C-alpha cells in the first residue's frame, strides 16, 4: 500500500474554474510536505513546501493546506488556466530520511475550454 | 544558471545491452538523487549520492543497477543486461544540503 495516497486520480475542469486536490499520507514523522507539478514529458517542479507545523502555504494561484492531525493535505488551484493541465504530485519527506522523497501517485488534471 | 541536465533524453536498448544515464546537477549542488517512474505509476526513489559517496541506495534493485557520482563529471546510473521491465522514465534531481530538490527532464528508456 502506497504511503501517500492522492485523489482524485484524474480530473477535468473548465478554464477559469477552481479545483481542489487531496492527499492522505501514512508516513510519519515527516519533516515537510510538498506539492509538485509535472508536465507531460518533463521533470517535476516544486509548487509549495510546508513543514509539519504549517497549515497553509500559497504560491500564486496555488494554495496548499496541511492538517497534521488527520494527515491530510490539499492543493487548491484558483482560476484554472489551460497551462495548469499536468500531473500534481504530493510528496512527503521523512524526518531523518536524508531528504529522500516519498511520492504519491499523482492527480492528472486537464483544463479544457 | 543552467538547471539539472540529463542525457540522453531518449534511449533505446535491446534486451541484454547496457544502459548508461547521465545527470549533471545544478551548479553548486553536491547532492544527486535518482528516481524511476514506471508507466502509469508514481516516482520511486532509487539512490542518493554525494560526491564520490553513495548515501542511500535503499531503492536500488539488488542486481544489474549501479550508480556513481565521481569527483569530476556527471552522475551515472548504469543498468546492465537490461530487460523489458526496465523501460521507464529515469529522473535525476539535485540539491544543496537539505534544500529543495530540482529535477531534470528525465531519460526515457525503452527496452526492445
Account of the 3D structure:
The complex is a heterodimer of chains A (113) and B (112). Chain A is mainly β. Chain A has no helices and eleven strands. Chain A has strands at 4-7, 10-14, 19-25, 30-38, 45-51, 56-59, 62-67, 72-77, 86-94, 101-103, 107-112. In chain A, the strands form two sheets. In chain A, strands 2, 4, 5, 9, 10 and 11 form a six-stranded mixed sheet that branches. A five-stranded antiparallel sheet of chain A has the order 1-3-8-7-6, with no helix packed on it. In chain A, a hairpin with a 4-residue loop joins strand 7 and strand 8. Chain A is globular, with a radius of gyration of 13 Å. Chain B has no helices and eleven strands. Chain B has strands at 5-7, 10-13, 19-24, 31-37, 43-50, 53-56, 65-68, 75-79, 88-95, 102-103, 107-111. The mean pLDDT of chain B is 92. Chain A binds chain B through residues 2, 34, 41-46, 49, 89, 98-106, and chain B through 4, 31, 33, 35, 41-45, 48, 55-56, 91, 93, 95, 98, 100-106.
Round the Cα radius of gyration of chain A to an integer and report it. Answer: 13 Å
Largest sheet of chain A: 6 strands, mixed
Q: Looking at the chains present, what oligomeric state does this protein adopt?
A: heterodimer
Structural class of chain B: mainly beta
Query: Which structural class do the helices and strands of chain A define?
Result: mainly beta
**Distance N to C terminus of chain A:** 36 Å
Write down the overall mean pLDDT of chain A: 90
Mean pLDDT score of chain B, rounded?
Answer: 92
**Poorly predicted runs of chain A:** none
Q: Which helices and strands, and how do they pair?
A:
The complex is a heterodimer of chains A (113) and B (112).
Chain A: E1 4-7, E2 10-14, E3 19-25, E4 30-38, E5 45-51, E6 56-59, E7 62-67, E8 72-77, E9 86-94, E10 101-103, E11 107-112
Parallel strand pairs in A: 2-11
Antiparallel strand pairs in A: 1-3, 3-8, 4-5, 4-9, 6-7, 7-8, 9-10, 9-11
Chain B: E1 5-7, E2 10-13, E3 19-24, E4 31-37, E5 43-50, E6 53-56, E7 65-68, E8 75-79, E9 88-95, E10 102-103, E11 107-111
Parallel strand pairs in B: 2-11
Antiparallel strand pairs in B: 1-3, 3-8, 4-5, 4-9, 5-6, 7-8, 9-10, 9-11
Amino acid at each position: 500500500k502506497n504511503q501517500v495516497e492522492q485523489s482524485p486520480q484524474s480530473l477535468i475542469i473548465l478554464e477559469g474554474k477552481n479545483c481542489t486536490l487531496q492527499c492522505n499520507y501514512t508516513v510519519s514523522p515527516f519533516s515537510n510536505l510538498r506539492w509538485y507539478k509535472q508536465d507531460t514529458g518533463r521533470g517535476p517542479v516544486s509548487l509549495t513546501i510546508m513543514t509539519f507545523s504549517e497549515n497553509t502555504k500559497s504560491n500564486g494561484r496555488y494554495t496548499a493546506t496541511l492538517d497534521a492531525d488527520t494527515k491530510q493535505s490539499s492543493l487548491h488551484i484558483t482560476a484554472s488556466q489551460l497551462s495548469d493541465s499536468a500531473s500534481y504530485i504530493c510528496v512527503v519527506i521523512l524526518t531523518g530520511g536524508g531528504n529522500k522523497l516519498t511520492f504519491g501517485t499523482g492527480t492528472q488534471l486537464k483544463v479544457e475550454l | 544558471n543552467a538547471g539539472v541536465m540529463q542525457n540522453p533524453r531518449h534511449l533505446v536498448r535491446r534486451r541484454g545491452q547496457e544502459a548508461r544515464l547521465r545527470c549533471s546537477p545544478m551548479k553548486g549542488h553536491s547532492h544527486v538523487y535518482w528516481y524511476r517512474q514506471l508507466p502509469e505509476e508514481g516516482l520511486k526513489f532509487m539512490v542518493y549520492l554525494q560526491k564520490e559517496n553513495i548515501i542511500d541506495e535503499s531503492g536500488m534493485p539488488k542486481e544489474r543497477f549501479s550508480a556513481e557520482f565521481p569527483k569530476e563529471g556527471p552522475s551515472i546510473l548504469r543498468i546492465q543486461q537490461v530487460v523489458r521491465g526496465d523501460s521507464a522514465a529515469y529522473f535525476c534531481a539535485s540539491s544543496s544540503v537539505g534544500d529543495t530538490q530540482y529535477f531534470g527532464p528525465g531519460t526515457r528508456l525503452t527496452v526492445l
